[in-house]
């Protein structure tokens, strides 16, 4: 697929590298495609970098991987996203990581993203675990779970396949209205990793019997 | 330990049976100790049944396992719980299971319980998975996780041991202020089991590497 990854930090970089390795056509969308960090990322991944508008315009899938405070601007730069699959990988974290603050009356970051990007087929995914698990979701017991939710069946199916491409076990959690639960799951992972000092090499698995 | 289990439904019954089997002294607290269902439960578990006030008075640990709408009344019947360990196993579920509604401005059911039971050492635990997993938390990959949180270290340690007694892997999620995340995790489990039709034989595990 043609994927624009908006954001070149730990999460965006990891997702873009992983999908490029899996054979997808990845373009990193960034405010400064000429930056040294971005040049390193494109050199090592084989992906391109472009301005956000250009990256988004040519993509079927747009993955949002910028800090929550930068999401609205990124969506403005991306321009019209009607019909595109938008993967919301963000979490509306308070600066001290103590909780979530969307900064609006939306029930979740994902629903706020959907309101800001009319016509986009938003899927909440790649928000509930660390970038280290996105780089390698394999654990002794099996792959980590990647929970996702959204209102467009085809968009969700594509998102689930992109999770499989990274090695995750995809778990469909339902409509986009479930996003508050996935954002709470992200905060739980963060608090276990950092506050409870279990470290980043932890991941949830959904077991079945 | 001397444990009062308030509630004789699926969750309360399962917890009480499990702890009685593990050698604890269990008393079910119920409005009607003479009811046929309760008689069956005590006969098969070897636990006793008593009025809520009597059960709570003699207990070191009080496990709340009644529907959210009945919690305040149960706490009133229980009387003073100062110094006791109170395990909040409840979820403030809307009747249609679509979401959570505490019915107050508290951030979580657990924090509301703490406000209603001054001096009690409240631990949120045994709320985030189904009673079937409480009856047997073993899966092929290993034991299911039982996440818990609270503000009293000794109470949390006791709660964690009671999770181990049932076969769970206990995971300390931090202070009682984390309870909203554990209540969201409960709703996620419920939605995966029922709405997403994965069934009740699913459980989260926290993997490490």
Question: Describe it for me?
Answer:
The structure is a homodimer of 209-residue chains. Chain A is an alpha/beta fold. The first copy, chain A, has a single domain (2-195), classed as 3-Layer(aba) Sandwich (Rossmann fold). Chain A has helices at residues 10-21, 36-45, 52-57, 71-78, 109-116, 131-135, 153-166, 179-195, and strands at residues 2-6, 25-29, 48-50, 61-64, 85-88, 121-124, 138-139, 142-143, 145-150, 169-172, 202-208. In chain A, the strands form two sheets. Chain A has an eight-stranded mixed sheet with strand order 3-2-1-4-5-6-9-10, sandwiched between helices. In chain A, strands 7-8 form a two-stranded antiparallel sheet. The longest helix of chain A has 17 residues, at 179-195. The first copy, chain A, is globular, with a radius of gyration of 16 Å. The mean pLDDT of chain A is 97. The interface between A and B is medium-sized, with 32 and 32 residues. Strand 11 (202-208) of chain A pairs antiparallel with strand 11 of chain B.
């Amino acid at each position: 697929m043609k994927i624009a990854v908006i954001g070149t930090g730990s999460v965006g970089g990891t997702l873009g590298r992983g999908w490029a390795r899996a054979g997808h056509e990845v373009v990193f969308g960034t405010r400064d495609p000429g930056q040294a960090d971005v040049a390193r990322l494109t050199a090592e991944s084989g992906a391109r970098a472009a301005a956000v508008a250009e990256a988004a315009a040519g993509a079927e899938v747009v993955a949002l991987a910028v800090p929550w405070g930068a999401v609205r601007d990124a969506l403005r730069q991306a321009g019209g996203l009607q019909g595109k699959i938008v993967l919301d990988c963000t979490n509306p974290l308070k600066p001290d990581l103590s909780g979530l603050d969307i900064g609006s009356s939306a029930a979740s970051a994902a629903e706020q993203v959907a309101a800001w990007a009319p016509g986009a087929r938003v899927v909440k995914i790649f928000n509930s675990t660390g970038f280290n698990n996105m780089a390698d979701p394999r654990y002794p017991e099996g792959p980590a779970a990647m929970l996702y939710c959204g209102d467009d069946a085809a968009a969700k199916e594509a998102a689930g396949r992109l999770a499989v491409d990274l090695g995750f076990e995809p778990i469909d959690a339902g409509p986009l209205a479930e996003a508050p639960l996935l954002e709470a799951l992200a905060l739980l992972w963060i608090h276990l990793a950092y506050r409870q000092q279990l470290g980043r090499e932890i991941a949830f698995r959904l077991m079945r019997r």
